[in-house]
Specification:
The protein is mostly helical. Helix content is about 80%, strand content about 0%. It contains 2 helices and no strands. It has one domain (about 5-50). The longest helix has 24 residues, at about 5-25. Helix 1 packs antiparallel against helix 2 (about 30-50).
């Protein structure tokens, strides 16, 4: 795994943990502010995951 891919992998894991913590704090229901935070985190997570994907050789 390249250094860049490892960085993306760590970042996606960190964001995933933040998403899980947000849901845990919210008790399964997000208010408007929490929903905006969730959307920001999921967008960042998706970008990090895309960075993990490498083209087959």
């Amino acid at each position: 795994m390249s250094r860049e891919a490892a960085t993306h992998s760590v970042r996606s894991a960190e964001l995933n943990e933040q998403i899980r913590a947000l849901w845990a704090r919210a008790g399964g229901r997000l208010d408007e502010q929490q929903r905006a935070e969730y959307e920001r985190l999921v967008t960042a997570w998706a970008a990090a995951v895309r960075g993990d994907v490498t083209e087959p050789v």
